[in-house]
Amino acid sequence: MSSHSHPIQIPKTQKAAIVKCSGAAVQVQSNVPVTQPADLKPGECLVKLQCTGVCHTDLHAAMGDWPVPSKTPLIGGHEGVGDVVAIGHNTVNSPVKLGDRVGIKWIAYSCLQCEQCRNSREQNCEHGQLSGYTVDGTFQQYVVSYVNCVTPIPDGIESASAASLLCAGLTVYRALKYSETNPGDWVVLPGAGGGLGHLAIQYAKYMGRRVIAIDGGEEKRKLCLSLGADHWIDFTTCKDITAEIKRVTGGKGAHAAVVTTASSSGYSQAIDYLRENGRLMAVGLPSKATLDANIFFTVFKSITIHGSYVGNRQDAIECVNIAASGAIKVHYQSRPMDDLEQVYDEMGKGKIAGRIVLTLE
Ligand SMILES: [Zn+2]
Ligand SMILES: [Zn+2]
Q1: Count of CB atoms situated within 10 Å of the CB of 76
Q2: Disulfide-capable partner of 330 in 103, 161, 197, 344 (CB 3.0 to 4.6 Å)?
Q3: 26: CA distance to ligand 2 center in Å?
Q4: DSSP letter, residue 31
Q5: 85 CA to middle of ligand 2, Å?
Q6: In terms of domains, do 121 and 206 share one?
């Protein structure tokens, strides 16, 4: 279909949540210009968003506390789902067409030509663009994205569920995929009852791994076990987590850990409870924490510490397709876009349980 013939009316202005400069409060405004179809460059598309997830990364971006600077003013957000309503003139071989439902993930654009891209490590592309960080993201009703990098969303999954998969789901899915574990192997998930953790349990079980879920409190215990965790450890009452993991795994330790925490202790502890040739998958992006691992035992036990950063297009497609097959239940809370400032506030105070999804329509 030619982009000349699209029937959809694109408004001139829209509602968007804007951070004027690093550290400023986020403001929802209703008169923000919408990029018009005629102004799209080849390879770009305009997506009318239905909803977007809110991630801790968005809070880091708004506060400007990461070592890499973001653009300003900034429209954050990188877990958007919506429909393609325009494609730039002279776009060739677009893998998506008008009307397709697509997802906008953290990696908004990768060149597909550089060394990292040629090795399918698009998330490390030297020309990469990041949604809601180096380019405006999904806290708006109409977002400009790139036909080659949006994620097709299959039928069989509602948009609000798909939203959280585009960052949280993708991140844990790739970490598990690259954990070099086999079916039946033990995977430890600290923070298993949280936004990333509850998805990690389900992907791990889908892959046939055995899961040791660590978190605190009765509510989290119930959630983790209902999602299929094989063993539960409550860190608020367990006196020796390493000993407990060793006991459960027949004295040998776990094969892998997917560590999403910002605290150094989560990492040093993993070196103790992993078995020989175990893999520590580091996926959190705290602004300052350092990784404190015992070098002797990292070497002596041949432990691999693997930084796993979101995922490429293929990882995203696999992650979403597995969920659309019915295997993954996303626990989220819907909020209106106007709540974003309050959501950031609650997030900063650690009050958010699970994922937040903003409705944008
Ligand atoms: Zn994120
Ligand atoms: Zn590249």
Answers
A1: 29
A2: 161
A3: 31
A4: E
A5: 26
A6: no
Q: Within 13 Å of residue 270, how many CA atoms lie on the same side as its CB?
A: 32
CA gap 55, 181 in Å, rounded: 28
Mean pLDDT of 46-75: 92
Cβ-based neighbours of 239, under 8 Å, separated by 6 or more: none
Please give the average per-residue pLDDT across 227-243, as a whole number.
97
Closest ligand (CA of 260): 1
Residue 220 is part of a domain; what is its CATH number?
3.40.50.720
Domain limits for position 56: 3-167+311-359
pTM score over 0.90: yes
Nearest ligand to the CA atom of 59: 1
Reported as a single tens digit per residue, the pLDDT across 289-310 is 888 889 999 999 999 999 999 9
Distances (CA, A) of 228 to 193, 200, 208, 214: 12, 11, 11, 13
Average pLDDT over residues 116-144: 97
State the ligand closest to the CA atom of 79.
1
Is residue 158 situated within a structural domain? yes
Whether 154 shows a pLDDT value over 60: the answer reads yes
Considering every ligand atom, which ligand is closest to the CA of 119? 2
Confidence of residue 49 (pLDDT cuts 50, 70, 90): very high
My answer on whether 334 and 267 are in the same domain is no
Whose tokens are 């974003």? That residue is 340
pLDDT in tens, 8-44: 789 999 999 999 998 889 999 999 999 999 999 999 9
- The per-residue pLDDT for 309 is 95
C-alpha of residue 207 to centroid of ligand 1, in Å = 23
Judge if the upstream peptide bond of residue 33 is cis by omega within 30 degrees of 0. Answer: no
Ligand number with the minimum distance to the CA of 123? 2
Q: Does the residue 37 lie in any domain?
A: yes
The CA-atom distances, in angstroms, between 223 and each of 93, 202, 238 are 44, 11, 18
358 touches 339 (CB < 8 A): yes
**Is 1's pLDDT higher than 80?**
no
